[in-house]
Write a structure and sequence with these properties.
The complex is a heterodimer. Chain A is an alpha/beta fold. Chain A is built from 25 helices and 29 strands. The radius of gyration of chain A is 29 Å and the shape is globular. The two termini of chain A are 34 Å apart. By secondary structure, chain B is of the alpha+beta class. Chain B folds into two domains: 42 residues, no CATH class; 113 residues, Alpha-Beta Plaits. Chain B is built from five helices and five strands; from the N terminus they run ααβαββαββα. In chain B, the strands form two sheets. Chain B has a three-stranded antiparallel sheet with strand order 2-3-5. Chain B has a two-stranded antiparallel ribbon with strand order 1-4. The N and C termini of chain B lie far apart (96 Å). Classes of the chains: A alpha/beta, B alpha+beta. At the A-B interface, loops of A face helix 3 and strand 2 of B.
């Protein structure tokens, strides 16, 4: 794996080496890294070489098949004589070498380009006016700049059925395909599913899936953006708009916690499509299908546009003034016997105003954003031992890890962008992947396709498995001595967990455990634990053993137990936790957590409950408890986008702004703070959550009202020391990952008890 | 006070002028004489008439004049417009809104895959430059000679697709296959 022939050639991905060579491009002398391809080198001197199939993030192995980037090349012999290569060369596969002389604008090359485009257009239909790619099409652009004005081919073009549905999201127009192989290489190099390939040969060659089955991928939307013509198109966006009809606003994807940079393309107040925005630190230029096609809810007709109150079992629209009066009355009557749930899908500003409203105005700490059984990051054992709550590694750092250990996760579903990085590390950077799976959840995951070791363990035996790995590390003396760390206690604690015993307990073969331990001992380890772990009844024990593991292999910053909800990280940072205030400062008297709140509500003792966008019925682990809480609570007000099952059980619904309708910041699972921007309003009667809390707080006689999200950010920066140096301006295009202020604590080793599955109960997932 | 004295003086002068019948009559006769001369000349066609009796008469428009837009059809009745939005892109006043949709065999508006489901022109914004006509790849949108575009309400200037579209030829729009001949029920009479 380590000596992989495939290399990525983007200059920013492969920083210039010291090994530079002198080349000449159109008479301009330039020093470039040895082996860099000439398209990239030409960019350095501002020379534009047209291309279709080349893409810096795809392997160059199959490229050079569009022939658009032809250049004339000559080499300089040691005696100074220049020898020209007899035929034009493809710039995308031409490595830079000492004394190379490149010409891109000679009459021959100009004629070649015209010829190539004339060839490509023999069969490419000229239906640009009805093609969704028209207006932003590389083939259109290159034809305009480099192509011939007319064609000599007057024969009938080939015809195939239009708009063949390749997958749930992608339609394929075979007539338009120019066989650049970008999509096929994407499925092979990036998403890893290898679903698309070339069928047939010669003039009949076409892109397709095996036996014409549906193209199934969690990242299929990317091929739409990659396709240099209008052959692969979005089913969702089909015929909805032309590029010049659209307005664009930058945003962050709301579908998971990875914080992908996206842009909304919208018309008036309807989102037409979502495209990826470049951020090398997060999503590079990719999106997952959930992110690319999952934002229809923002402009859905079901969005609420005015406050609704339930009277006699029916919903009546009321004004905000009446709604506020009702909320103020109920919350005043309830005193501090109130609670708030939610915020994982709201911005940092919303969450800060939410907790401030509860803590300062209502004098209650009964707030919680966590809906799953997962009680991190506030309660995790990681912080005290490793110095961080959820993620030690950034997304970008994953690709430089030597070994990546995935535990109990279908990463492509839970953390799609982390999955792409893991896949990139495995494919391009020679990382080894150890994929441990709860066999009750799944036999195989997307990562199994490229994992070096698959460990399929019995439900609930994670701790045994990890202890087995630790045992091998110690018995084979793979643990390097570390300053001030005494492993003897841990060593004797795991001494009984020989690979054979661990194998018997977990159902994994002893050889696999040994192999996994050997791979983990290579150093520079990143561990990613997923839902099977976080939802586990004995989550804290597993986390403790994972901490032991990363410390033993010498990567104490390598543990990642990322959150999954959009801004769950930010909600925790802002203090929407019963026991911690903003910046994880412990509060004097801890309030009720989600379970406590719901139990109080179910018993009818809770005066008033405020739900901030949390879909309790769909997302809370204990649906029965949630149901009885919603039924028996005396008064429920909910900030909602639409009339969801949970919202329909509330007493008052306040229509709030979606991510496309408000400014603010969100924090991704790697603690990266990024901005979202208001694109449009679906109605003048919809307010952002923070404004609702501010206005109600003012009615109840609490603090100074905020006037904008920016205003709240100033307050956040003043309140939370780790955020103090961050201004909205300093966030820039790629955001800032906030850093813990204290120096990382000295890692400590502490053996965790193993509870056999019978005693521990099985995995909750 | 000066103003009042001045007014009184002018009233007096006017009264004096009118009191002299010969002077008033002469001026009137001279003036109407010119009018009468022209009237006679026109009546006996000595000089051409420039005035058009609008709205009873309308002046012939120049062949390339650009007024109200029309969305044209093919001879078989299908719409030429394919909803490509190039007109909207070319429009310097940004007054065209096009929303496209997909044709199906059962519900066909235009040849090919795509047709305009909405086509609106804001006639208050339009500057009648004709760029939309130039940009149109199918010759669907044309500016024709109907210049009487005044209206009473702003909303009425938002021309919809139905207003812009040429009337369909009677037989063209209905595919022959869709017509089922219903036999008159003989028993009812």
């Amino acid at each position: 794996m380590s000596e992989n022939k495939l290399t990525q050639t983007d200059a920013t991905l492969n920083p210039p080496t010291t090994d530079l060579v002198n080349i000449k491009i159109n008479g301009v002398a330039v020093k470039v890294p040895k082996g860099e391809n000439i398209i990239e080198s030409a960019r350095r001197v501002g020379v534009d070489i047209p291309y279709f199939c080349y893409h810096p993030r795809l392997s160059k192995g199959d490229a050079a098949n569009c022939r658009m980037c032809l250049i004339e090349v000559a080499s300089t012999a040691p005696d100074g004589s220049v020898r020209k290569m007899p035929k034009p060369q493809a710039a995308c596969t031409m490595p830079a070498s000492e004394g190379l002389v490149v010409e891109t604008e000679t009459p021959a090359i100009i004629k070649d380009r015209k010829g190539i485009l004339e060839f490509l257009l023999i069969n490419h239909p000229l239906d640009c006016p009805v093609c969704d790619r028209g207006g932003e099409c590389p083939l259109q652009n290159n034809t305009l700049f480099y192509g011939p004005p007319t064609s000599r081919f007057i024969e009938e073009k080939r015809h195939y059925p239009k708009s063949y549905p390749l997958s749930e999201h992608v339609v394929f127009d075979r007539e338009r395909c120019i066989q650049c192989a970008r999509c096929t290489r994407f499925t092979e190099d990036i998403s890893g599913d290898s679903q698309l390939g070339f069928l047939k040969r010669g003039a009949d060659i076409e892109v397709g899936s095996f036996a014409s089955t549906a193209y199934q991928s969690k990242f299929s939307g990317n091929v739409i953006e990659l396709c240099p013509v209008g052959a692969l198109l979005s089913r969702n966006y089909r015929f909805k708009a032309r590029p010049w009809d659209l307005l664009t606003q930058k945003s962050i994807c709301t579908q998971c916690s990875n914080g992908c940079n996206i842009k909304y393309d919208y018309r008036v107040d309807k989102i037409q499509r979502v495209n990826a925005r470049l951020n090398e630190d997060v999503n590079e230029e990719w999106t997952c299908d959930r992110g690319k096609f999952g934002h229809d809810y923002i402009s859905a007709d079901s969005r609420l546009r005015e406050p609704l109150v339930k009277r006699g079992g029916k919903w009546h629209p009321i004004s905000w003034t009446e709604a506020y009066a009702l909320v103020a009355e109920k919350f005043k009557a309830a005193g501090s016997n109130v609670a708030g749930i939610g915020g994982a899908n709201a911005t940092n500003e919303d969450n800060f105003a939410f907790q401030k409203f509860f803590r300062e105005t209502l004098k209650s700490s009964n707030i919680d954003h966590r809906l799953g059984a997962y009680q991190g990051p506030g309660a995790g054992p990681i912080f005290s031992r490793l110095g961080y709550h959820t993620t030690g590694t950034t997304i970008a750092e994953l690709e430089s890890a030597k070994t990546i250990f995935l535990l109990g996760t279908e990463l492509a579903d839970e953390q799609p962008i982390l999955f792409l990085r893991v896949r990139k590390a495995a494919r391009f950077k020679g990382a080894a992947i150890v994929n441990a799976l709860d066999r009750a959840v799944a036999d195989t995951t997307s990562a199994s396709d490229f994992a070096d070791v698959d460990l399929l363990y019995r439900p609930g035996t994670e701790v045994a498995l990890l202890n087995g790995v630790l045992n091998v590390l110690f018995s084979k003396e793979l643990v390097a001595a570390q300053d001030g760390l005494d492993f003897s206690g841990l060593q004797s604690a795991v001494a009984e967990w020989t690979p054979e015993k661990a194998a018997a307990e977990t159902g994994v073969s002893a050889e696999s455990i040994v192999r996994a331990a050997e791979l983990l001992a290579r150093g520079s380890v990143a561990v990613i634990a997923g839902k099977t772990v976080t939802e586990h009844a004995y989550y804290t024990d597993i986390a403790a053993v994972l901490a032991n593991l990363v410390i033993a292999v010498g990567s104490p910053a390598g543990l990642n137990i990322p959150v999954t909800d959009f801004n769950a990280q930010g909600a925790a940072d802002m203090g929407v936790l019963p026991d911690y205030g903003p910046g994880y400062t412990p509060v004097a008297s801890a309030g009720l957590n989600t379970r406590g709140i719901l139990q109080a509500a179910a018993s009818g003792s809770l005066g008033a409950l405020w739900i901030v966008g949390a879909e309790l019925l769909e997302q809370y682990a204990d649906t029965k408890l949630a149901e009885s809480a919603l039924e028996n609570c005396q008064f429920i007000v909910m900030n909602a986008l639409s009339l969801t099952p949970t919202a329909s059980m509330a007493d008052l619904i306040l229509p709030v702004a979606s991510a496309a309708e408000k400014d603010g910041t969100v924090t991704s699972c790697e603690r990266r703070i990024q901005r979202i921007y208001r694109a449009f309003d679906i109605s003048g009667n919809v307010k952002p959550d923070w404004l609702v809390f501010t206005e109600v707080a003012e009615l109840l006689g609490g603090g100074a009202p905020y006037v904008s999200a920016r205003d709240i950010w100033r307050d956040i920066a003043q309140t939370i020391p780790t955020h103090s140096s961050i201004t909205l301006k300093s966030l820039g295009e790629s955001g800032i990952r906030w850093q813990y202020a204290h120096p990382a604590p000295k890692p400590t080793v502490a053996a965790a008890p193993y509870k056999a599955p019978a005693a521990a109960g099985t995995s909750r997932a | 006070m000066g103003f009042l004295t001045d007014l009184t003086r002018r009233v007096k002068e006017t009264q004096q002028a009118l009191a002299e019948p010969a002077l008033g009559t002469k001026a009137l006769a001279t003036g109407f004489g010119i009018t009468f001369k022209h009237y006679l000349q026109q009546q006996i066609k000595l000089r051409p008439t420039e005035t058009i009796q609008y709205p009873e008469e309308r002046r012939e428009q120049f062949p390339r004049t650009r007024w109200r837009h029309v969305l044209t059809r093919y001879e078989n009745g299908l719409e030429k417009c394919i909803g490509c939005s190039l007109c909207a892109g070319a429009c310097p006043a940004r007054c065209i809104y096009v929303q496209a949709s997909e044709n199906s065999d059962d519900n066909r508006y235009s040849p090919g895959e795509r047709y305009a489901v909405k086509y609106e022109i804001n006639m208050i914004r339009c500057i009648f430059c004709g760029f939309c006509q130039d940009a149109c790849p199918t010759g669907a949108i044309v500016l024709r000679k109907d210049f009487e575009l005044a209206d009473y309400h702003r909303d009425d200037f938002l021309y919809t697709k139905e207003m812009l579209l040429e009337p369909a030829p009677i037989t063209g729009l209905i595919p022959l296959t869709a017509i089922t001949v219903v036999e008159p029920a003989a028993s009812s009479h």
